[in-house]
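Lecture notes, unit on binding sites. The following record was shown on slide 14. It pairs a sequence with pyridoxal-5'-phosphate.
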Amino acid sequence: MPRCMPEPYRIKMVEPLRMTTREYRQQCLDRAHYNTFLLDADDVYIDLLTDSGTGAMSDRQWGALMQGDEAYAGSRSFEHMCESIREVMGYSLIIPTHQGRGAEHLFFQNFIQPGDILPMNMYFTTTRAHLELAGGEFRDIICDEAHDSQSDFRWKGNVDLDKLDGLVEHYGSARVRAISMAPDVNMAGGQPFSMANLREVRAYCLERGIKVFLDVTRIAENAWFIHHLEPGYEQFSIKEIIREICSYSDGAWMSSKKDGLVNMGGFLAFMPGEEELFAKCRSQVVVYEGLHTYGGMSGRDMEALAVGLREVCDDDYLSCRHSQLELLHGLLLKAGVPLVHPCGGHGVFVDAKAFLPHLDQDEFPAQALAAEIYLEGGVRGMERGNVSADRDPVTGRNRRPRLELVRLTIPRRVYTESHLEYVAETVIEVFARRDQIRGLKMTWEPEKLRFFQAQFEPLPAERQLSAAEGMSASAG
Ligand SMILES: *Cc1c(COP(=O)(O)O)cnc(C)c1O
């Protein structure tokens, strides 16, 4: 009996993978300064770095590529993309961008005024970076359960309305002009919000004239949870649920590289009523992205996205994807590996604090663990913890978030059950020798989004950072 739901597709083309030796991987890791983002993909066996742009397209999408209209202005492919977005999500005012952060850039530069407070259900790295670049401030209004890896609460992506109300009371709706919600909250471990929560948030905001903007990057994966687990929603299709989610918003941005099922692309979209903001953003897209009918995407990419947005609404595809995630989550759980619960919508998140309790958070346990998993079996994951959280802009200190995670992200329609079993075995091997794993020291970091490029080296074996710091303090 297969442990995963059999895939509702078969393989038409293959891409060879290369296994390497441990000695070779140690050299690769040294060259990459212990940052999995700096490894060459050819040196990776199973690549679970991200689900962003790493999915496999269908034969229909490849067919659609051939029909791309590469006209500079007024491309027919742009029209096809807009029709698909309107059909699936209901947004009618659409601006294409090269990827998600291009849309975030346009949105925040044109919507945010310096001093604005933007409450969000946790944060996403590029979203917060663009918010802060525009002079806004982020506030976390996600429910407390989201910060607790052991809580089994199913709707950890939910907004805590008391937290939102506290901010509105404190700052007033002149500074809290909008809130933003992301489905399938990445930094919380791929955790969904419920429709009931979104509806409540929308009602609260409507009463006070506060806008709601969504980051719809993983909206189909959140819709799957609602369809299968929220009472009353099993009778609605995934597409109907997506439409309902979007109907509670004034606009949204998307990285199409995730639930758009394409390798590149994004967009910014608004509901009727937001014509003014739409016009501002649209007049700027030509400065930063490209003409307003392609915005950094080629015609063929827009055609593939038009197909991908409809394909992602298939419940069989989403159920199979979720069963892959549950398989990996279940195998690791059985072996006692500490994980974020419940299993998320796009990856399995290992709790690095509990995995490596002997390391201080400023010795970057999740960064160290991601490196060890690569060394063990050529499996590439990524850090989602103290490095990803960046420094506090006021104090300059590491933010030391409560969640210190390694994300094993499953690309869409790419790997099979046996690949995932191999991944589980690799992580379990590392777990068996966890006591010997050393922390890391950051030797270089860029100013923003440091996790992409920061460099590290292992701390000396005898004692870790705290002791080393104590020595230099006494010497000085
Ligand atoms: C990936 C992502 C983005 C940024 O999109 P890019 O296409 O990588 O620029 C924004 N929000 C969320 C939730 C994401 O996962």
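Take-home: The chain is about 40% helix and 10% strand.
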